[in-house]
Q: What sequence folds into this?
């Protein structure tokens, strides 16, 4: 497959050497390996348009890649062109409470650009090295999602190059179908090249209350109170194993744990921090280990200490079959407790289990699939696995993922996922016919991200 015509057509670069192709043959999941025939690095937005038009004419496939943080090969391609959007990293000027940015901009760079003016995006992802185009294509959740939904819910407009190579501005008022298709659209209908991000005013400091629970049911009762009766700016929670040693199981002794549930509640303030009584009144936590005040910038980058630890320990370079689901609130306690009982205690060395309570009304993007009900629970198992454990652990994670669907949940499809055609149709439900229609209209030659969703 020759890419000479493409090299002449764009201002960016086209790499066909084995070293470059090998470097981008894997993603953060490190479970799937696909080597592209070429790596295209656009220098300007026009390069994306020219690349997709050439792909349609020459008959090669294309997948867009931002930071490569997918875990199931979503940002990889075999024998086609990998479109590395990292070079599209220009940030425009503030326009009131919004700003145009190119899709390859890292969230960290956007924050550092707008924070001195007193602004932040409404939702920040944990990994600030993700690209804006990447998380808008998958959804993007963060500690403020209980208030504002996904990152994809907080864009005013997008500039998109469709699968046919047409460059289009879209929003809720203009070209609405394309706007709805590409947000959380997994790169199937077009490539997001620019986004007009919705911003909000922020305060200078953040106070965080570190709470600990020993009963999952009580935690969810408190979270329901927080979601429905009062506002906190940020809410994070998870499941933490406490080793209890080894107990006899038949003829063997096996490790076992007890689970605890930390929750962090954070509120912004200028000079007077929020009073503890007003924030924690009526909550039933087991302990309050810590309270901390920090500058807003430190809070935005708080996860970097964890990621640095994973990198130093080697966990960052291991396999990451991260398995995430959105669960109906009513069945969350029984489901989560059942899954935790079956997790091997050594699974989470260099990993974590996330709980992310959400209000369904805040999540409005049509392609972001979620169960019914006013409240939802995001549940994520995020291990780091050495090669020798992958084959043993994948069946456990696969079973947990299947069970989440059986109880009425929806899988987060940015992580590790292995759906067949029937499962994809079930996942999209009533949206499936619309998604097929959009695929045929915006990408009729099916050049974008082929083979992931079987349209």
A:
């Amino acid at each position: 497959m020759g890419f000479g015509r493409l090299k002449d057509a764009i201002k960016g670069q086209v790499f066909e050497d084995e070293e470059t192709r090998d470097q981008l043959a894997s993603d953060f999941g490190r479970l799937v390996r696909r080597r592209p025939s070429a790596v295209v690095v656009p220098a300007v937005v026009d390069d994306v348009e020219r690349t997709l038009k050439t792909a349609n004419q020459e008959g090669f496939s294309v997948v867009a890649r931002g930071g490569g943080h997918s875990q199931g090969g979503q940002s990889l391609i075999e024998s086609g062109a990998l479109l590395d959007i990292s070079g599209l990293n220009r940030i425009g000027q503030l326009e009131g409470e919004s700003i145009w940015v190119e899709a390859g901009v890292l969230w960290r760079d956007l924050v550092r650009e707008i924070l001195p003016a007193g602004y932040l995006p409404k939702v920040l992802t944990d990994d600030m090295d993700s690209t804006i185009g990447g998380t808008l294509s998958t959804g993007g959740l963060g500690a403020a999602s209980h208030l504002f939904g996904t990152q994809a819910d907080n864009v005013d407009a997008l500039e998109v190059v469709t699968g046919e190579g047409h460059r289009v501005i879209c929003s809720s008022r203009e070209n609405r179908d394309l706007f709805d298709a590409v947000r959380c659209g997994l790169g199937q209908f077009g490539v997001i090249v620019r986004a007009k991000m919705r911003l909000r005013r922020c305060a200078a400091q953040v106070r965080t209350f570190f709470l600990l629970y020993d009963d999952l049911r009580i935690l969810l009762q408190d979270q329901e109170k927080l979601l429905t009766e009062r506002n906190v700016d940020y809410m994070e929670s998870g499941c933490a194993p406490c080793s209890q040693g080894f107990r006899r199981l038949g003829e063997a002794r096996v490790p076992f744990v007890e689970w605890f549930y930390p929750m962090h509640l954070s509120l912004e303030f200028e000079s007077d921090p929020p009073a503890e009584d007003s924030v924690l009144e009526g909550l039933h936590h087991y302990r309050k280990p810590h309270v901390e005040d920090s500058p807003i910038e430190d809070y935005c980058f708080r996860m970097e200490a964890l990621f640095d630890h994973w990198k130093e320990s080697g966990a960052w370079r291991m396999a990451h079959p991260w398995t995430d689901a959105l669960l109906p609130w009513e069945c969350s306690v029984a489901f989560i407790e059942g899954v935790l009982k079956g997790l091997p205690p050594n699974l989470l060395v260099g990993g974590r289990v996330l709980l992310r309570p959400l209000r369904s009304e805040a999540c409005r993007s049509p392609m972001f699939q979620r169960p019914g009900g006013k409240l939802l629970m995001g549940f994520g198992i995020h291990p780091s696995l050495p090669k020798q454990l992958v084959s043993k652990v994948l069946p456990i994670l696969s079973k947990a993922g299947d069970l989440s669907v059986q109880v009425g949940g929806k899988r987060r499809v940015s992580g590790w996922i292995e759906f067949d055609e029937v499962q994809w149709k079930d996942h999209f439900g009533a949206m499936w016919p619309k998604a097929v229609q959009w695929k045929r209209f915006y990408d009729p030659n099916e050049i974008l991200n082929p083979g992931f969703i079987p349209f």
